[in-house]
Amino acid sequence: MTDEDPQAGQRVRRRASRSAGPTGADADAAAVVVPTEKKSAEQKSAEQKAAEQKAAAPVALGKPDTPPEKVVSGDQVATKAEPTGAAETPAETAVDTPVRSKPKAGLVVGIAVASVIAVALAALTVFLLVDRNKASNADEDRARYVAGARTTALNLTTLHADTAAADLDKFLAGTTDEFKSQFDGRKDSFVNVLGQAGVQTDGEVLEAGFEKSDGDCGTSLVAVRAMQKNGDEAPAERNYRLRITMCDVDGQLLASNVEFVP
Hints:
Helices cover 47% and strands 24% of the residues. By secondary structure, the chain is α+β, with helices and mostly antiparallel strands. The strands form 2 sheets. It has a 5-stranded antiparallel β-sheet. Strands 1-2 form a two-stranded antiparallel ribbon. Strand 4 (199-214) and strand 5 (217-230) form a beta hairpin.
């Protein structure tokens, strides 16, 4: 430090002096306090107590923190916390397997349903064909019964005195043996009565319809109009309703019964 003397006009240099004691650096050095062994023990005790409190604290369950990604340069691959695509392959396969199996199961069910429908349609077709054949055969049988009844009614109502025997034989030829037996022993007398009375009758079938069937037999109702005269009398119209049963005997339709219906 320097002072100027006002009288001499010269600077007087004084020697710097300092008070006793440590300098700034020494003061800083002196300020550093070395912890004693006792303080170190207290610090350890505090740290141990903090560790125990931390261990006793409840642990929060949750997803652990994902470690930060580690990125490397160059051709190296960055490692991540998530599983790689190779690790996900089994899971994806396990999930996709049921999805791919559904179309197969649906295809099998579809084929099974189609097969059942096809079988049902085939069975229905066969049933309809059989039923149709039965219906067709039944219609044919009914038509035959009605036709046989018409012929029987016409032969029964067409008789002439001069051809009475032949006309009666013609009628009986279309009947069963049981029905013919009713004329046993009476055929000749019946022909004589027709001849003596001079009966002339000509029948005409007006209408005929099927009534019922019973096994190989079918019964029909026949409406007949006959122009009849005896001797020299004028012809008179006679209307009859006949119930005639026709039976199939060895492939031939024969009348088994004839009734006059009022």
